[in-house]
Design brief:
By secondary structure, the protein is mainly α. Helix content is 73%, strand content 7%. It contains five helices and four strands. The strands form two sheets. The chain has a two-stranded antiparallel ribbon with strand order 1-2. Strands 3-4 form a two-stranded antiparallel ribbon.
Amino acid sequence: MSLALYPAIKLGQTEEKIRRSISRLTTGLNILAGGTSGDFAQGIEFSKEARSNKAVVSSTQVGLDLLETAESALVELAALATRLREIGIADTNSTNSASDTAALNAEAISVSDTIDNIVSTLKFHSIAVLGTSAKTFNVVDAVDAGTTAVKTTVGITATNISDATNSNTTADTALTEINTSLGHVAGGISALSAYGNISSALESIELQTAAKLMDTNFAVETAKLMKNTLIQKYATSMVTKANQSEENKKLLIL
């Protein structure tokens, strides 16, 4: 074997390694230039699962927005119903003047109308959130399109107040329904928050796993490139010297 042949062989192998490293560094894909296709296929699968979990996170967030809308409205309704109860109690006071009674009647009607209007008109994305009957919504909570049911209200009976008389009794009924609805909303918020947090964590883990399988490790690949570049320079020098030695031998023979 010629003295120049072995370094020349190593030089060719090193140049191939350099080309592979440059390919991986420029594209960011570990699959290229000798990467494992099986790893890439697994990476695609993990990426797909990550996108599915991202969709679940979005779905649960919409559900949370719906429940938080209902919760805000129910808190306001509780305050209104509490005031309606106070009006009813005040109306039983025998020392009220005619003007006092008239004022209590007017306020009772106004508060009652406000309660009934909020219950009948509150909407989220054009969807009625509350009502005189129960409202339940199914929200996607898993990548297999599984859903969980969340309730915004058990139904809040219309108050239909025409004066302050016995408005406290009507208010008590409304408060019971409002408080029960708030309990369902709180439970739904806890459930959707948990599902969303789990899906968010899974998305992050799956993206990291996909990256490990599919993406170039730039630190490692850069180190390989530098190493092989040094080897290439050394091998080139050795080939040059070996060729020069062979030329010198020819001159001696001649």
